[in-house]
Automatic annotation (TrEMBL):
Signal peptide stretch: none
Keywords: DNA-binding, Transcription, Transcription regulation
Ranges where the HTH gntR-type domain occurs: 11-79
Protein name (database record): GntR family transcriptional regulator
Domain of life: Bacteria
One of the Pfam families matching this protein, by short name: GntR
Lineage: Bacteria, Bacillati, Actinomycetota, Coriobacteriia, Eggerthellales
Amino acid sequence: MDIIVSNASGEPIYAQIASQIKGAILAGELAEGSPLPSIRALANDLRISVITTKRAYAELEEAGFIDTVQGKGSFVAGGNVELLREERLRRVESLLAQAVGEAASAGIPLEDLHAMLDLMAEEG
């Protein structure tokens, strides 16, 4: 799992980390029960504060994406299939809302947008 943080981003570093780990879980790159790097190891790898990494993990745990076992580490949470599905649905809805907004500002009729979506779905 490669995590890339940018000081130039407007998003805080802990949020960048949490977002990338969440994305890897949602994409299936990190399976249920997969261990995550220790907080210290990840902080060292990224050359950031342990506190920043700890905050990212705390957010992921609060959202139900990871479980932390004292003395053993953090792992991708299991049994949250519905949570993951809901998160994916929200992400798709957000992207579709963005596409609808772009189409409206470009004067593209809804029928054409539907046709584009159908074409993209057929192409896989």
